[in-house]
Amino acid sequence: MAHTIQAYTYHAAMFCAPCGATLPEIDPEGNDRTPVYSWHLSEFFYFDDHIGVIFPQCDKCGQFIGARFSIEARTWRQKKYGNTYYSLRITGQGLDLVVPMSYGHGTLTFRHRAATELGLNWGALSHDQRREMFPVTEYAVPRKRDLHQLATEAGR
User: Fold this and answer.
1) Where are the beta strands (DSSP E) in 93-146?
2) How far apart are CA 88 and CA 90, in angstroms?
3) Which 3 state secondary structure label does DSSP give 107?
4) Contact indicator for 104, 86 with CB cutoff of 8 Å
5) 65 contact partners, CB below 8 Å, separation of at least 6
6) Is the pLDDT at 155 greater than 50, yes or no?
């Protein structure tokens, strides 16, 4: 597997890969522009008791670096009462998390639940950051049992 550059450190700052690739090779202090690969990214994350996990941001465009979680949402509509239920599978950053069935629908609900499950402060994220960090793929399933199952339930 080829490892790709996720970011660059340059002149005491961090830049996403697209912004960092446009920087000169040597910064004003004579330091090299340094690539940051995926296995190094965890060194730049930290946890704040009030905010949750903090991901580094590009100093040029403001994009979160390496903080992208894919959400696969499965929705099921209960025909008798008209209620909609969902389950989520959240992947990214080496994580594969299943969120069991809950009541609700819509990408905003899915993103909020994913952020809550990951310990992120939803209110601290802008609308664009929420959309960037949590791309959603939604599937409507015909039966309740087609929603994501927890590993212990899937074996039954």
Assistant:
1) 95-103, 136-140
2) 6
3) helix
4) yes
5) 6, 7, 14, 16, 36, 41, 44, 55, 56, 57, 58
6) no
Pairwise CA distance, residues 60 & 15, whole Å: 7
Q: What is the model's pTM? A: 0.61
By DSSP bridging, strand 95-103 and strand 84-92 are antiparallel
Could you give the CA distance from residue 17 to residue 35 in angstroms, rounded to a whole number?
8
pLDDT in tens, 15-44: 888 888 888 888 888 888 888 776 666 566
Residue 50, pLDDT above cutoff 80: no
Q: Please calculate the CA angle 68-119-126 and round it to the nearest 5 degrees.
A: 55
Sign of dihedral through CA atoms 19, 20, 22, 23? positive
